[in-house]
Amino acid sequence: MGxxxxxxxxxxxxxxxxxxxxxxxxxELEYANxxxxxxxxxxxxxxxxxxxxxxxxxxxxxxxxxxNS
Length: 69
Hints:
Elements lengths: L1 H12 L21 E5 L2 E6 L1 H20 L1
Antiparallel strand pairs: 1-2
């Protein structure tokens, strides 16, 4: 997670910088102040990182349940 730490350090140095982070890794949401969830190029949900993470995990669980039944 060296890149994440470097971005955090940059943000700590200057409070006037906004960083936009695009990821497919849920664990990287831990470092975000907010998040946007998109499907097929459309915004489905936006809010705090914890809410988005919970939403994604519920979708994953539902999908796994469907393919296992």
